[in-house]
Design a protein that fits this description.
Elements: E1 2-7, E2 12-18, E3 28-34, H1 42-53, E4 57-62, H2 76-85, H3 88-103, E5 108-118, H4 120-128, E6 137-141, E7 169-174, H5 182-193, E8 201-205, H6 222-239
Parallel strand pairs: 3-4, 3-5, 5-6, 6-7, 7-8
Antiparallel strand pairs: 1-2, 2-4
Helix pairs in contact: 3-4
């Protein structure tokens, strides 16, 4: 595990890079991990550890580093104010630069890079795959396809651009998510199903928003998180399998 600094559009991005424990004879596929709106945390690194344990080079990325520390979000008003400071197009541009940085690494297979994002991070990932950056897959944990409320007029909606997705998307939702209502989940799932050739997937698990973030003990649902990660890892393995030899299984997460 190593700390990294990546040039962004208007300032440096920071992150933590984790490599597979087993040495590979060839460059490995890689995955960028993006956090929720409240920023980079231990849960972001924990997600990257799961991916490294499964054989991927994993970059846990602090996309908000150029803004300084993410403010403490104690209320809905705080969250809206923070989102209004951000620019979706700016964040996606920074993300594209991080993708290029990762692609230039000698230990990374430049043709096999995916993204796993949580909440707004998954939304950024889905937006990125509408552009020709060669992203191989996106896994979005409880990401709202259509932003609502006060940010609806300034935020970009992946749900409006499903036909432009250039990579398979796996959307993982919480059945009791107060921010992503079930009718929105069903609407988005229907749009994904309209493009079967891409192999898009949509799954729902017990839990509320943040159900897969171990840094949120009041929201974290271990059983749902493990089930969702099982689906996510299978989806990624289908899109860009890690370089294990025939018959060899990846190590268990956390080992």
């Amino acid at each position: 595990m190593s700390d990294v600094v990546i040039p962004g559009v208007d300032g440096d991005l920071t992150g933590v890079l984790l490599r597979p424990r087993a040495a590979a004879s060839a460059p490995a596929p890689a995955v960028i991990v993006l956090p929720e709106i409240d920023g980079f945390c231990a849960g972001t690194v924990g997600a990257a550890r799961r991916l490294a344990a499964a054989g991927y080079v994993a970059l846990a990325l602090d996309l908000y580093a150029p803004y300084g520390s993410t403010p403490v979000l104690r209320s809905g008003e705080d969250t809206v104010a923070w989102v209004m400071r951000l620019s979706d197009r700016h964040q996606v541009s920074d993300l594209a630069m991080a993708l290029s940085w990762l692609r230039d690494r000698p230990d990374v297979d430049a043709e096999r890079i995916a993204l796993v994002g949580f909440s707004i991070g998954g939304r950024y990932g889905m937006l990125l795959c509408t552009e020709p950056h060669g992203l191989r897959a996106v896994v979005a944990f409880y990401s709202r396809p259509w932003p609502g409320g006060q940010i609806a007029s300034v935020a970009l909606a992946p749900g409006e651009h499903v036909a432009r997705f250039g990579a398979p998307v796996c959307a993982l939702f919480g059945a009791d998510d107060e921010l992503v209502p079930i009718d929105m989940v069903e609407r988005f799932s229907g749009l994904l199903n309209d493009h079967p050739s891409f192999g898009h997937e949509s799954h729902t698990f017990p839990g509320r928003h943040f159900f897969a973030n171990e840094s949120r003990p009041r929201r974290y649902v271990p059983e749902s998180a493990d089930a969702a990660w099982s689906v996510a890892l299978e989806f990624l393995a289908t899109s860009m399998p890690p370089p294990f030899s025939s018959g060899q299984s990846p190590p268990a997460p956390g080992t």
